[in-house]
Amino acid sequence: xxxxxxxxxxxxxxxxxxxxxxxxxxxKEGANVLLVDVKDEYFExxxxxxxxxxxxxxxxxxxxxxxxxxxxxMAYAKEVFGKIDILCYYSGFHGMGNIMTVPETQWNIALEVxxxxxxxxxxxxxxxxxxxxxxxxxxxxxxxxxxxxxxAITYATSKAGTIGLTRALAMALAKDGITINSMAxxxxxxxxxxxxxxxxSVPMKRPPMPPPxxxxxxxxxxxxxxxxxxxxxxxxxxxxxxxxVFMCSDDSAFLTGDCLDINGGQxxxx
Amino acid sequence: MRFENKKVVIASSGGSIGLRxxxxxxxxxxxxxxxxxxxxxxxxxxxxxxxACENIVSYTVSDFASEEEMEALSKKILEKIGTVDVIxxxxxxxxxxxxxxxxxxxxxxxxxxxxxxxxxxVLKFFLPPMIEKESGHVVIVTSVAGRTNVPGTPWPEALAYxxxxxxxxxxxxxxxxxxxxxNGVAVGPVEGMDQPAYITENVSxxxxxxxxxDDVANAVMYLSDDLSCWNTGExxxxxxxxxxx
Lengths: 270, 245
What we know:
The complex is a heterodimer of chains A (about 270) and B (about 240). Chain A is an alpha/beta fold.
């Protein structure tokens, strides 16, 4: 039985590697999907899926940081698919630096994309979900916001912030039958896809990750981390997509305001 | 005395936490620069009335998140006290009450800027002396609203206070190699603070009373003590047992 049969989903940041793999799973589970991203080139990754399911996958160029464009995206999803049941927020921005070195612009963009952008998307989709008193919203956060693995201050702060934001919105929208959760994966295997640089991001120069137990850029043990799954240092995107399908299906009806930690047991580490 | 000859910078929105922390640290021998928001003279008057003001110098800023203002102030303060051993931030702000989707973009950004960007900017300009001498403690006062969901929390506050947790963990990780600790204290209702109703009405601990400014100050001082150097990247939930209920 398909878990997302006749459901309509909007993927913000729909051109990302994670969203592209999730799209395959959503097709298999029977959903219609509108992919939204800031540039057409991001959609090239999903060309095979779009050719296979031309009626069930649509695309739209829009930015999560512009509330009006989010409203237009939701209106378009409603127009072509008739309703909206699911919102998946994949848009992300890493930025660079630590407390001492972070440029003000990178700090602000990270908050705009990872926090305010999510809010813009939720606010835009809310009328459509409220209308049906049903909704599933997934916010793609990161272990960088839960613990710390030597990530940039921009990323650590904005991902922690968006997890708090998710909790607050979950409380506010629960009365309308809408569940909102975030997930916090650790490192992912995105080798299937060619990397596309994030818009406006300044590349962060970091020394190579040291082996487990060795001293890292933040001091001894500071960047220690890694999966506890034997021979599996990082997650396969299909495993991440499996979690997203769960969070967006009726299987997760009693889950809201939570953050799922998908990290191969990293929290078991000392 | 526990903080003899220690140089402390406290960035406060003007409530009891900054004031009491300054007072107790000064009593323990610290030299304190207490930086607060306007009105000018409000904190100075309280220092005279409520807190032994010896060893406390009071400053006022209009915007903790302004890099220009904090850079100028840090130069002024460092010229006066020479170095920094402890930085405490206790920045709060209240987002407008109302429906979640009726908070204006301007108000939301203002709240996040005052709480989150303000703390980061303070650290940016007062951390260098600690890095240079490879020693120091940072304590960020945050809110229970950043640790769990409290009914009625405006989302910009939830975002900002949770984001402070990211600053704490990242700072602890990055500056651990410089022997600088980063920790937080997440408070519930506190006497003498202008807190929103969602906190004072919905957060209650085992004793059913508010924390005092001294309760919070004592937790801050514990985390600022050199003997607490094995605590870093932690957040103490100072809410009177709210999580235990």
